[in-house]
Amino acid sequence: MIKDPIGLLVPEHILSDFDYEKIEEISGVIRVHLIEKADPNHYPKAMIGKGERQHNGFMNPIELQSFPTMGKEVFLVLKRRRWKIKGKTGSYYNTYKYHEEGMKATKEFGSFLKEIGRG
Fold it and tell me: Which residues lie closer than 8 Å to 113 by C-beta, 6 or more apart?
């Protein structure tokens, strides 16, 4: 059951790692902006136990195409957080497997395109 209307545009497994930020429509293209959660469950595993974590900006956004809605293209813009250990150099970040190799589409949409011979 969908608890939030944004769940109609964004797969549930993505919403488990990202929070809704904003939605925009420009020239018939819908972009849903999502920002990586900052709770302890989403700290990069590689930095656990190395010291005090500090937010260090964001990675370049990843844009994935999803299923169209109401005749409009839909893209998910994922902003991943960058972290560092306080007082040290180097960055840490999470990686996610939301798209098929070689495709800039969600796994679900990519599978659909392959099924109909367009991917």
Answer: 103, 105, 119
Closest CA to 82 of 46, 106, 29, 116: 46
Could you write out the three-class secondary structure of 43-75?
A: CCHHHCCCCCEEEEEECCCEEEEEEEECCEEEE
Whole-model pTM?
A: 0.86
In a domain? residue 52 = yes
Residue 76 burial by CB count (10 A; 0-12/13-18/19+): exposed, middle or buried? buried
Tell me the two tokens of residue 46: 């590689």
9-28: per-residue pLDDT in tens? 899 999 999 999 999 999 99
| In-domain check, residue 89 | yes
Q: How confident is the model at residue 22, as a pLDDT?
A: 96
47 belongs to a structural domain: yes
7 falls within a domain:
no
Residue 96, amino acid: Y
Write out the residue range of the structural domain in which residue 29 sits: 13-115
Count structural domains, the chain.
1
